[in-house]
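4.2 Preliminary Data

To establish feasibility before requesting continued support, the project team ran the inverse folding procedure on a target of 322 residues. The structure was first converted into the token representation described in Section 3, and no sequence information of any kind was made available to the design step. The complete token record follows.
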């Protein structure tokens, strides 16, 4: 009888194992991480640093798949169409999760219905940089020059709806100046034209602009946070000249709708652990960024709050897709 009982226990244990959901062994194969912008930009560089640590922790490769274009819509729609099994994730940020709602008239995805927000990961300030030929070495001098020469300054961005675009729109509305917007598909191309003089100004993520400013290829006038950055303490905050001005980029990991709750919880835990790793924190810091993990609920609230903020900026400034 004891032998029969033992055999029955083994049988039912095996049966239960086979009955477990298909994601019980998650993850057991590589995870694709879509970055909806070009290689070499701030999102790409930061997500590669995070992906490397997640690969170590979870024991499977995280494969970066750059899908730039259409204000993050191309890459985000790739995610929306993917199975919600945890093996396709994406970088979602202030563009795809906030500004697109107000800036794009026919956004093809519903942030609330089509996406699972897993965790925010990063907080990044922007640097306002100008071509070295621009006759302004401070923010007050830039404002004065722009007022005397309306439309003479062209500012580049890494796409419509990015903080590089809307940050300058906010600056224009708060300083009563006018500058022409020239959107690019990638930050690297925009910076190349800025250095060459094709455009005169950018307010781009500090991981992209910082090295060029430090090398003297462009001139940094201000930082977009509410106060000076510990990474660039010598650069004044724009808010020192324009009280109340603040632009902060943010982003984290998202998935398709209807992801299993246990996979979302596992990923959130792993992301928070990775971002607490001293080497990852230092890597983000050297790139002019801060680690900023959150719960899924906090991430969704951030998206809602920023949507409301930038909707007001877009309406007041008259910003549009160029």
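Position-by-position output of the design step:
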């Amino acid at each position: 009888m004891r032998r029969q009982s033992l055999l029955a226990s083994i049988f039912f244990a095996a049966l239960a194992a086979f009955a477990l959901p298909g994601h019980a062994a998650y993850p057991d194969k590589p995870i694709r991480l879509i970055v909806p912008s070009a290689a070499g930009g701030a999102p790409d560089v930061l997500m590669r640093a995070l992906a490397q640590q997640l690969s170590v922790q979870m024991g499977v490769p995280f494969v970066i798949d750059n899908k730039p274009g259409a204000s993050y819509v191309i890459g985000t729609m790739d995610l929306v169409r993917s199975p919600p099994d945890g093996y396709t994730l994406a970088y979602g940020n202030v563009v795809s999760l906030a500004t697109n709602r107000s800036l794009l008239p026919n956004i093809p995805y519903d942030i609330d219905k089509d996406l699972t927000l897993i965790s925010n990961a990063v907080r990044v300030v922007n640097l306002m940089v100008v071509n070295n030929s621009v006759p302004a070495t401070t923010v007050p001098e830039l404002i004065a020059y722009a007022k005397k020469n309306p439309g003479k300054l062209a500012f580049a961005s890494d796409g419509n709806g990015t903080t590089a675009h809307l940050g300058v729109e906010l600056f224009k509305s708060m300083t009563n100046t006018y500058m022409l917007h020239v959107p690019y598909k990638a930050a690297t191309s925009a910076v190349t034209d800025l250095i060459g003089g094709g455009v005169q100004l950018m307010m781009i993520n500090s991981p992209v602009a910082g090295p060029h400013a430090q090398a003297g290829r462009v001139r940094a006038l201000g930082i977009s946070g509410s106060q000076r950055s510990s990474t660039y303490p010598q650069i004044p905050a724009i808010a020192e000249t324009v009280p109340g001005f603040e632009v902060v980029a943010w982003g984290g990991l998202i998935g398709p709708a209807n992801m299993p709750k246990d996979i979302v919880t596992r990923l959130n835990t792993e992301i928070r652990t990775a971002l607490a790793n001293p080497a990852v924190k230092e890597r983000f810091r050297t790139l002019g960024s801060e680690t900023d993990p959150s719960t899924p609920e906090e991430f969704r609230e951030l998206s809602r709050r920023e949507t409301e903020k930038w909707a007001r900026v877009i309406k007041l400034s008259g910003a549009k897709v160029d």
